């Protein structure tokens, strides 16, 4: 192997920290470390002349390992790595330490002690650098095609976005027609235009770029690259991110989409009538039908549950284009896509479980989607709200808010759009029938969106009555066929009995029925309410734990159409970003299994937060863990889990951790006992950074060792630190539910607890070990804890190791 | 407003059996319109009792007569969307009131009857006649000695009659 030649570059940050740290002493110290062939001092090394000095040393082959003392490693590291790579050295043969924020600033009052600590930090970096090995890159194929599941407002939008960006798109909808829930909603807030409008594709010459477009007249079929598969469901997903193989089942439509001219002759001859689900069963339709005019696809469909097929075959006989095929069979198709977007939306909760409201028992108690169908001029009652019990127009209408939402018995969350839906419906009724007596019973009216409060205002102006109080019972008076709503008007402190012809329940919005099954097929998670779970709602919305699979719209949480569209754009952009290069290139900073040691215990495949480890047969009847280089995020949680040390990280080997532990504890220079801190590279390290940046002081006998994630730490590492001379050990990671690698800091907590038990068994005070969960803004907490730990171990006295 | 912080009183209630769920209340009023007592008198409204309690109005709640009007029908508790155990909260408040010495006279009378006669309803000629009509045997006097021992062991007597040692 090539001889290791380390170059050390010491930045004094423009002389700033030279007032505290003795740079001459540091230079002298470093020069004497074996393997170091070059030591340079400057005011900065991550850009300009300083960086050039590193590049020159690398180019001239004088050095082949780079150690830089530079502030904020997270930023400077990137610039230096790039330059080093261009100079011809593998960019991973490099280590950066932050002498400013981790040493000079926090120990400004004890400059001598700080200088000794700086020596230890530099030594640790050099010892690690000497053990570093080059890390290569790998390339994986990324098929430039995307599957969008769900043809509602969000799914159509995402599909259109991607198709226009040049990706091949398969838009799969389980129903025979596109449109989803949105299409049934008559009108949308906050624009009050009709519900079937979505953004138009710019590629269509017939529609101007800024004009909106109707779901039904959009010519979705004319968008190049967009393949719409209705009546289709997902059966199986195989492969990996960038290259999925998805099997879908196309249910028979029994009508050839290409031949059907929507002449409607078939429905006139069809003898079977069934309740029309599209119209909330308020009307009937034939066994061969179309949802409404101009629907997409513009082709009829046969309801297999209702049709008598060859017993009747009237439609087949009458169809002028021979589009009807009663013998069509389900068909399995395999799609090869690089990414998947889930946009399966939400649905109305069935409120019949809420006994006090008697939905399903009293016909005149309906849901707001049922009302929406009535308010549709093309709907079953031609725009008139009627009493389903006798078909008479409803004059007195009471809305009940939060039905099954904000209710711990059913769904604890606020469904977030039902206040607006009721306001929209109430004003629509008042507009058409000013004499109608409309009352909304509410707990809180939530109108948080753009323009939403105006709806509330307008509703009051139009005479809609608002009662603050949640009804406790709906009673039916059979003598008059009237409903009575019992509610307390809290503001008047009066009990009311509101008489109503129609009671509209603002029913909760819940995940679509097939969410669970689909989540299983895709191997992604649902949240506690059953919606698809975003990887991180703040930083990584519309992403899931599985790379290449995205989620948007009501599938994530109930949304109005404008928000669902925005969400869809987000998912589309993420999918595009992921696939646009046609390949996925990544550094092989991954876990590596030593097959000879792997004991087939199955711990790591279960622990890996990214499902990156599988067990593979070895051929001799045994199995061995195998890491997917594509899926592995390099967190090291598996390393901490493996009981026999069979896995290590390519970018942080066990030997490198040990070397750093020893080095950091080899120089003390203070009278106080040494404390070693293992910090993760994310929030934990940021907290240490911020304590230094703000010059919050803690003693210089506290030393920090950075690991990718605290999940990498084994009990062994903690014991090793004590053996190497630490009198106290701290582990600093992200918040348990904010860990950048999902479970890392939770796993670390378990291991710290385990180590505490072991320490006790060895007769060592367990309080010498502590775990903290911090974020960037908690630098003060880190400084405080470091001080406390230092004082604590001082009081406990020297560690007795037998 | 009283001197204490509103939450102190609420915490005291949640620390008691039956009172645990009170802070969940979001004042929707379902309990009020479900309550048969509220329908008949303005003196009682479970939502209002909870609101006063959460605002720390200790005296209004514990010294007033509202909490003693609940009929324990559990209509409210069944319907509360926040799963506040409304009727049980009322019990917790009653227990707190009693500990504080705010006992409506009728309850002291009940307690005395229980201690002395072993029954809440005193025997009467009318009752005995009714029993005979239904063919029921005459009632025997209750074993109040055993009962007294039990009630003393549980501290019932001290709490009810403010004897020394009550907490
Ligand atoms: S949006 Fe309004 S009606 Fe719907 S759950 Fe929230 S508060 Fe209740
Ligand atoms: S390093 Fe992390 S992502 Fe990679 S295999 Fe191990 S646990 Fe999984
Ligand atoms: S029903 Fe429950 S949440 Fe509503 S006011 Fe009564 S106790 Fe509070
Ligand atoms: S339990 Fe009490 S408060 Fe609740 S409804 Fe019955 S009487 Fe009213």
> Given this structure, which CATH class of the largest domain in chain A is correct?
Alpha Beta
Beta strand % of chain A: 15-25%
Question: Largest interface, and how many residues on either side?
Answer: A-B, 21 and 22 residues
The total count of helices of chain B amounts to 11
CA-based gyration radius of chain B = 19 Å
CATH fold assignment of the largest domain in chain A? FAD/NAD(P)-binding domain
Shape of chain A: elongated
Overall pLDDT of chain A: 93
**Overall strand count of chain B:** 0
Low-confidence stretches of chain B: none
Residue share in β-strands of chain B? under 5%
- Please write the string of helix (H) and strand (E) elements of chain B: HHHHHHHHHHH
CATH superfamily of the largest domain in chain B: Alpha-helical ferredoxin
- The residue ranges of chain A in which pLDDT falls below 50 over 5 or more consecutive positions are 199-213
Helix/strand-derived category of chain B reads mainly alpha
N→C terminal distance of chain B:
26 Å
What is shown here, in short?
Chain A folds into six domains: 1-135, Rossmann fold; 145-251 and 336-344 and 512-579, FAD/NAD(P)-binding domain; 265-329, no CATH class; 350-508, FAD/NAD(P)-binding domain, CATH 3.50.50.60; 588-649, Alpha-Beta Plaits; 670-802, 3-Layer(aba) Sandwich (Rossmann fold). Chain A is built from 20 helices and 38 strands.
